[in-house]
Each structure stands twice: as structure tokens, then as C-alpha cells.
Amino acid sequence: MLCTQNWLHFKPWVTDGVTAVKNLRCGLKSVRPQPDGSQFDHDPKQSFIGDASAERSYDILASGTNTGRKYMLSFFFFGTLQDDDLRKLVLGRSISTEDITIAILRGFRCVRLRSRVQPGILEDPEGQVEGTLVYQLSPTDAARISHYECDAYEIESRWVDLPIGGQTTAWIFLSDPDLSVAPGKWHLKNWQQKYKRRSLIVARTWMSRLDDSELVSLENEWR
């Protein structure tokens, strides 16, 4: 979600880093037990063969996302960064399909925002937001995401639900609750059809403004 009030115009400044970022090592809750309280007496992954998202979720829950790799991070995207092309442009690289799965954030709802093509999420005890969970992101990846999002959003760690019923923590960019909400629902496909092409042009120019000194500064915020 590019930090512009109007997605055709840039703000004349760049972010000075992420506020209150901690060294989060992804916490995990195990796969839920059977109704009688016992654990699986067989390989539970066999139940998910054929469902790529469920298989990947099981692997993450079984082994942890940081195995052997320091400072690896997870992000939950609910807006335009769910788009493969935009995410690749922002990160400067492609993400393996093994490091992506669907997830659900509970306690929030996705809304359209006035004067923006990107959505926001607002707290709603009965709401839920389906989005894309990306694993194994490095501090450099996080720095590039931070530059893209800048300080138009609040960064927080939240629990999200995985397809097989487990949970994991992920970083999420939360909207300012005072932003003006527009009527109707935000849909990724609608954005892709109407705004993606021009949004990619804007995002490419914005990301080109990320110089080495700012990148290092932002990376350090995530270490």
C-alpha cells in the first residue's frame, strides 16, 4: 500500500524507519488436538495432501519458520501486496510458492478508503480478513516493504489463522482508524483490473528512491 493520499502523487519525504519494531522470532501454536484431547496418532499431513496451502501450513507448524535462519520474518498482506507482480517489484525478487499461503486475521474487517486505491483494516470483534501470509522474509525484504508502506500505517505483530487450523504470528500494517472509509467492499481483482497497471508505474518510481543509506537504516530496525 503505497503511502500516498492520491496514488498518482508522491509525498516529498521518505520514511525514517519502522516504529517500535522488535526482534520477533515467529511464535507458533501447534496443530490443534483431536476432540478427545489426544494428539494425532498418524502423520496429520496425510490429511492435507493435494491442498498446497494446507500442506505448506503444516510444514510451517511442524518445523517453525526460522529453522537455521536468523531474523527471518513473516508478513500478512491484505491489500495490493497480495498481487504477485507488485510484491515482486517491492521486494526486488520473487517469492517461492512454498513460502506463501492464505491466512485469516480475526478481529478486523477490510474496508475501502476514500481517495485511495488501497484498502485499510479496522478493528471489528466479529470481523475477519482473508489475506496472504508470506514466510521467510529477510530484514532487507522487510526494509523494502517498510519503504513502500512508509509511516501511513502502524506496524504490529498479530496472530493469524492458517488453513489447517493452527496459528502463527505475522507483521501487519494497520490503518489509521481516523481515515475516511468509503462505502462498499475492496476487492483485489477489482484493483487489478482498474488500477494495477498505473499502480506498478508509481510503485516502481517510489521504490527507485530507496537509496543504500535508507535501506541499511531500515534493515537495522528489523534485526
What does this structure look like?
The protein is an alpha+beta fold and 223 residues long. It has one domain: Gamma-glutamyl cyclotransferase-like (Hypothetical upf0131 protein ytfp, Roll). Helix content is 27%, strand content 27%. The chain is built from six helices and seven strands, in the order βαβαββαβββααα. It has helices at residues 52-63, 84-91, 139-149, 188-194, 196-207, 212-221; strands spanning 28-29, 73-77, 100-113, 119-137, 153-161, 167-175, 181-182. The strands form two sheets. A four-stranded antiparallel sheet has the order 2-4-3-7. Strands 1-6-5 form a three-stranded antiparallel sheet, with no helix packed on it. α2 packs parallel to α5 (196-207) and α3 (139-149) crosses α6 (212-221). The longest helix is centred in the N-terminal third of the chain and has 12 residues, at 52-63.
Distance between the termini: 23 Å
Percent of residues in helices: 25-40%
CATH topology category name: Hypothetical upf0131 protein ytfp
Query: What's the assembly state of these chains?
Result: single chain
CATH architecture: Roll
* E-strand count: 7
The CATH superfamily is Gamma-glutamyl cyclotransferase-like
Strand order of the largest sheet: 2-4-3-7
Could you say which overall geometry the principal axes of the C-alpha atoms support? globular
- The number of helical runs is 6
Structural class: alpha+beta
Q: From N to C, what is the helix and strand string?
A: EHEHEEHEEEHHH
